[in-house]
Amino acid sequence: MTDAPPIAALELGGTKCVAMLASGPDAIHEEVRVPTTRPEETLSALEAVLDGWRGFAAIGIGSFGPVSIDRQSGDYGNITSTPKPGWADTNVARRFAARYDVPVGFHTDVVGAALGEARWGAGQGLDALAYVTVGTGIGAGMIAHGQPVDGLTHAELGHIRVPRLSGDDWTGVCPFHGACVEGLASGPAIAARTGIKGEDLDADHPAWDSVVDALAHLMATLVLTGVPRRIVLGGGVLVGNPHLLPQLRAATRLSLNGYVVRPELENMETFLVPAALGAGAGPLGAVVLGAQALAERTDRAFTRV
Amino acid sequence: MTDAPPIAALELGGTKCVAMLASGPDAIHEEVRVPTTRPEETLSALEAVLDGWRGFAAIGIGSFGPVSIDRQSGDYGNITSTPKPGWADTNVARRFAARYDVPVGFHTDVVGAALGEARWGAGQGLDALAYVTVGTGIGAGMIAHGQPVDGLTHAELGHIRVPRLSGDDWTGVCPFHGACVEGLASGPAIAARTGIKGEDLDADHPAWDSVVDALAHLMATLVLTGVPRRIVLGGGVLVGNPHLLPQLRAATRLSLNGYVVRPELENMETFLVPAALGAGAGPLGAVVLGAQALAERTDRAFTRV
């Protein structure tokens, strides 16, 4: 990929955006951070950055969501129903496509990170994986046959409802579902339940049992989609609490109880693994999104000949 | 598709197999049934049928599972860890590919039915849908961008564990998970719980509440994958009990609680719909599997030129 043309990669986050001119982790030419404020201010600042760059062949954008990735829909390329003030129904992908005459790839930040981990990180060489981030929210992105798994929209599997540990009837914090996985196991859920931030909570605090149990059912559900050859785990709650991973592996095995029989699932230590790219997964994933948009346009041009 | 070349389509079921020479529902040239007995006897009988047919351009096979659809694996094309006596580790797809010099498409019967419903049935014209069958087992297949959603293996989402209705602690019948969706809502689950077969159970029997609740969480999980523009429902339990569908729509809406906002989800009457092809979905889906294998080989040949 280092011989590949550079991509203008954008990661749009809740508090900051990263713009990166790169064709891979060994070929990062520029990297600029812009605070996420109002949409017009933020997107104009990113355009000013890109205006100063030359020679990018495509743009890739991984954005906080929800976003519309439905090319059959008039709102394609928008950030849609976000509660983030001012950002609902913000045109992102079509705006950049109109300004720069290059293909634009657009997806969620989570799917971007999944693509980045699949190309250069903990899923290197795999055509199918899941990436799960457990932090302020819980997001899951899946890649199959090298492409994002999507259709009507992107995955929101952090919001599945799961069975509860016996005797646990805490109501959870998700405003939509109460005790869905995000409502039980995200950073804000842990803080609401214990009064202590996840990164400061003792490893033997009993609240971790409920967190691990909820996350394990999410892992099992991802396995039961049939897609991932590996699940890559990131986000502050998991990165900050390395004691969770062995527990999560054991609990996932218990939830599946031997049901799916494939060699990849025999060893949970190689099936459930920590992310490798850290904060780089987002912008590097956006590089992949841009490269895929470029390849898609090239394919179409070839077919037309 | 009626101008398309005929496909030799095989649906391998637990009690019978269907062989169909067809290019679509309006172009069915032959249809033969063969009982499912021992593998060698059954597959030889199907080969004898295909030996008598001429001019098929590809073979499509939708099989009871689990099957290996992993082209990176040595067991690709096998029925794998089935409890069906004699059928574990049976080579199916490679056997037919070796005997006939045509492309062979191979997947589960459920994904086959999903493809059939997407092409000619209740999902006609949709590039993304889910098909769920509720009968002896509970199977879910998803199609995205016109292709099966898979990776390591095929979906087994009938086995997800779900929250229970308050006060319901019946243990369920799944030998792996007890009260997963299949353990709570399949035909054998209903019979075990009530002593009455699903098709004979009164519409106002209280056991239906638990069945609908479990199925609604499966529907919500499918929505949260982001894939389906519609969910198509088949199988004996749902077909035989039309009173379930309105309840299932209401319970699915309750489980999601407005979380995913897309126009397709606004009207549950057009989002959760009955299958249209009935028993034809299986063999017609196998026609699509064969046609896709043919198109894939043609693409590869074109790329090589």
Automatic annotation (TrEMBL), chains A, B:
It comes from the Bacteria. Its EC number is 2.7.1.4. This is fructokinase. The keyword Magnesium applies. The keyword Metal-binding applies. Keywords: Magnesium, Metal-binding, Zinc. It holds the Pfam family ROK. InterPro entries: ATPase_NBD, Carb_Metab_Reg_Kinase/Isom, ROK, ROK_cs. PROSITE patterns: ROK (PS01125). SUPFAM superfamilies: Actin-like ATPase domain (SSF53067). It catalyses: D-fructose + ATP = D-fructose 6-phosphate + ADP + H(+). Its cofactor is Mg(2+).
